[in-house]
Design goal:
The protein has 157 residues and is mainly alpha-helical. The chain has helices at residues 3-14, 19-26, 30-38, 46-56, 60-71, 86-98, 104-122. Helix 2 (19-26) crosses helix 3 (30-38).
């Protein structure tokens, strides 16, 4: 499961919405939504991300958090080490080879290391901007704008 999939599944569970019902309301297939949740498909398109935010009625920080989760949810990552030193290439290869065997505690420790390394780079800009853009958005696009979009069917409370 991806961070985006976990977030969407959690939102559905909180509101007691089935995957089939949500997929029908969003006019996508249940198989596609399931594949997004389980990480068998790449990140959602920006348009689908906005639809999902509107569907759940989430805005501002919650919408940014879901966008960040989507940006960090590509299940097959390519690490380009061209132009970096041999140790960087070695690290990328070792991580790729070892990923499936790392304990949850090791994964969390690595997240803390990367978070600490990101802090100096993220000064003066929003944290979400330090993450690569979604596949169908230009690199200079920022948080999703929910203004002016057609209303989506909302789940029943």
């Amino acid at each position: 499961m991806t961070p985006f999939g976990e977030a969407v599944r959690s939102l559905r569970a909180e509101r007691k919405i089935t995957l089939k019902a949500m997929a029908a309301d969003l006019e996508i297939s249940a198989a596609y939504l399931s594949a997004l949740e389980h990480g068998r498909k790449g990140r959602p398109s920006r348009a689908l991300l906005i639809q999902i935010c509107e569907y759940f009625g989430i805005i501002w920080d919650d919408a940014e958090a879901l966008e960040r989760a989507a940006r960090l949810s590509h299940p097959r990552v390519v690490v380009d080490t061209a132009g970096l030193g041999p140790r960087a290439t070695e690290l990328a290869n070792r991580l790729a080879r070892s990923m499936r065997h790392l304990s949850p505690a090791t994964v969390e420790a690595m997240h803390r290391l990367l978070d600490a390394a990101d802090r100096p780079r993220a000064r003066g800009r929003r944290r979400a901007e330090a993450v690569p853009p979604l596949a169908d958005e230009p690199a200079d696009v920022q948080a999703p704008s929910l203004d002016g979009r057609p209303a989506m069917k909302r789940p029943h409370a």
